[in-house]
Amino acid sequence: MHILLIEDNPADARLVHEALVEAKLACKLNWKNTGGDALAFLRDTVAVDPATAPDLILLDLNLPGVHGMEILGEIKSDSRLRHIPVIVLSSSMAKTDVMDAYRAYANAYVAKPTHFSQFVALVAAINTYWSHSVLLPSATA
Questions:
Q1: pTM of structure
Q2: Taking the mean position of all CA atoms in its chain, how far away is CA 52?
Q3: Is-contact 3 27, C-beta < 8 A?
Q4: Rounded CA gap, 14 and 5, in Å?
Q5: Are 43 and 17 contacting, i.e. CB atoms less than 8 angstroms apart?
Q6: What is the Cα 120 distance to its own chain's centre?
Q7: What distance in Å separates the CA atoms of residue 134 and residue 6, rounded to the nearest whole number?
Q8: Euclidean distance between CA atoms 76 and 63, whole angstroms
């Protein structure tokens, strides 16, 4: 599985990476720390070879420059990208953020846990669900 993590906080990005390692999950993780970099990466990737696009996107909301909701909107409005599941992974538990994310077609909204063991369990559950339980478009195309 190829995961794109869009996260501006290096500590949180490291936590995701460590959680994947701790959970013994085999996947490729690309990390982009700005929305602009993430959108450029996605567009360049699908332009060169659509088969190399990520299978899953983990998206933080509070990013510098381009806000996570704008990135979500760009992904879901681009016919080459909209099939990629986007999980909002945010420290915000505000009802408005949750509703806005789902209205913008997020596939899931998950609050970041505060303890590492919970973070590992969450990342493992996300990976198990998205890589073993559901059929993704790239796997069925």
A1: 0.91
A2: 15
A3: yes
A4: 11
A5: no
A6: 16
A7: 22
A8: 18
Residue 130 is classified by DSSP as: I
Residue-level pLDDT, tens digit, the chain, 141 residues: 889 999 999 988 998 888 888 777 778 899 999 999 999 999 998 888 888 889 999 999 989 888 999 999 999 999 989 999 999 999 999 999 999 999 999 999 999 888 888 888 888 888 888 877 888 776 445
Q: Which residues touch 102 (CB under 8 Å, ≥6 apart)?
A: 109
**How many Cβ atoms are within 10 Å of 67's Cβ, its own excluded?**
14
**DSSP bridge pairs for 59:** 6, 88
DSSP 63: -
CA dihedral 23, 25, 27, 31 (to 10 degrees): 0
Tokens of 84: 């990629």
